[in-house]
């Protein structure tokens, strides 16, 4: 059966990977910009790439986009277990392409992190016209200085640290806070600095438990409590990351977690103090986005819409030098942006005496 032709621009929108504050703001911005400037028809792909595999989608109207920018989650759903190139052990990518063609899409806007945009890059090789929007609380996407969702996550963790501090002060305890972030330490670093942590342990620099214990002991001696922030991907020197579970068919099959409790046991071997560990988990990625993330996601979405209108496909929107730009999807695919030694916030933390559990981090002697 021959496909019917269409006159209006038809654009699909997909949100992939973990949910993230700001997704609805991005959906709203992409859709409204395209509707108003190109009279486009917008098709929402339901539940991420799973919607392509199972052929589930729905039209998104202008009214559907009204009043959603403050809502957490995503109105079209998401899924982090539906890699079209390995779904339940089989390659479904040709089915994705067939449904893309059946929907008569002129372009597909994919809103996601490194796993989602990596899949988008592979699909672009099959002929899909893809534009990527950088979303992840982990802030670990290559080529961009920031992703939306990160500011909200940092704000949530900072609030948790503030609350745990009063308990630590009252009971003279060491309070450990485990954050998300996978193999990058951005959330732990920024929330740790914002929350006044004494020690921050991140995946980029394996920690020596004796150094961490020494920092905690010194802090307990002067203030009678201590705050330690540890990223879920952190590990001790010559040790392994803590894996909570493995999920087959996911772009990121290893689910990290448990390092907070491990650190509690490790510290207990070196010091006589009451230690408590708190894992925030999915609290970090839920709820309403901050005003910053609402604005940032809106800006990114509108920019992505303009890339679609100008037929600049297989690109990813990025922020560089506080300005929006775009790079080839290939540049962000299958890569992780880690915290570099010259990062401003990291350097600030080192200069202020925050312990990272390693001798390999030094404050740079000169301002560049």
Verbal overview:
This protein starts with 9 loop residues before the first strand and ends in a 17-residue tail after the last helix. It is elongated and about 75 Å long. With 368 residues, the chain is an alpha/beta fold. The protein folds into two domains: 10-148 and 289-332, Rossmann fold (3-Layer(aba) Sandwich), CATH 3.40.50.450; 153-285 and 340-351, Rossmann fold (3-Layer(aba) Sandwich), CATH 3.40.50.460. The chain has helices at 23-38, 49-53, 93-102, 114-124, 150-171, 186-194, 209-223, 259-268, 291-309, 329-332, 344-351; strands at residues 10-15, 41-45, 57-60, 107-112, 130-134, 173-179, 199-201, 226-231, 243-246, 254-256, 274-279, 315-320, 323-328. The chain has a seven-stranded mixed sheet with strand order 3-2-1-4-5-12-13, sandwiched between helices. Helix content is 35%, strand content 18%. It has eleven helices and 13 strands.
CATH architecture of the largest domain: 3-Layer(aba) Sandwich
Low-confidence stretches: none
How many domains make up the 3D coordinates? 2
CATH fold-type name of the largest domain: Rossmann fold
Q: What topology, given as strand order, has the largest sheet? A: 3-2-1-4-5-12-13
Q: Kindly name the structural category.
A: alpha/beta
Question: How many H/I helical runs?
Answer: 11
Q: Give the termini separation.
A: 64 Å
Order of helices and strands: EHEHEHEHEHEHEHEEEHEHEEHH
Could you estimate the helical fraction of the residues in percent? 25-40%
Report the portion of residues in β strands.
15-25%
């Amino acid at each position: 059966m021959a496909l019917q032709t269409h006159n209006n621009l038809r654009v699909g929108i997909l949100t992939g990977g973990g949910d993230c504050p700001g997704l609805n703001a991005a959906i709203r911005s992409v859709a409204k910009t395209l509707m108003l400037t190109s009279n486009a028809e917008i098709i929402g792909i339901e539940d991420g790439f799973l919607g392509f595999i199972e052929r589930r989608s729905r039209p998104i109207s202008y009214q559907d986009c009204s009043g959603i920018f403050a809502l957490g989650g995503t109105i079209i759903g998401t899924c982090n277990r539906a890699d079209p190139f390995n779904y339940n052990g089989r390659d479904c990518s040709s089915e994705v392409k067939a449904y893309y063609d059946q929907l008569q899409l002129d372009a597909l806007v994919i809103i996601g992190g490194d796993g989602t945009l990596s899949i988008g890059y592979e699909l672009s090789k099959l002929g899909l016209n893809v534009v990527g929007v950088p979303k992840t609380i982990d802030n670990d996407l290559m080529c961009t200085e920031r992703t939306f969702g990160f500011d909200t996550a940092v704000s949530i963790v900072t609030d948790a640290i503030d609350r745990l501090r009063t308990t630590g002060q009252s009971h003279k305890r060491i309070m450990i806070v485990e954050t998300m972030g996978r193999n990058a330490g951005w959330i732990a670093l920024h929330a740790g600095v914002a929350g006044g942590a004494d020690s921050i342990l991140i995946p980029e620099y394996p920690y020596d438990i004796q150094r961490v214990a020494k920092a905690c002991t010194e802090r307990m001696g002067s203030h009678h409590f201590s705050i330690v922030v540890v990223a879920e991907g952190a590990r001790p020197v010559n040790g392994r990351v803590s894996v909570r579970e493995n999920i087959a068919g996911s772009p990121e099959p290893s689910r990290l977690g448990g390092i907070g409790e491990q650190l509690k046991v490790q510290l207990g071997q070196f010091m006589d103090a009451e230690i408590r560990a708190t894992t925030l988990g999915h609290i970090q990625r839920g709820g309403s986005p901050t005003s910053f993330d609402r604005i940032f996601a809106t800006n990114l979405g509108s920019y992505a819409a303009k890339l679609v209108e100008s037929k600049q496909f297989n690109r990813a929107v990025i922020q560089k030098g506080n300005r929006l730009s775009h790079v080839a999807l290939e540049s962000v695919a299958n890569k992780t942006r880690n915290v570099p030694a010259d990062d401003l916030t990291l350097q600030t933390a080192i200069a202020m005496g925050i312990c990272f559990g390693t001798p390999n981090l030094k404050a740079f002697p000169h301002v560049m």
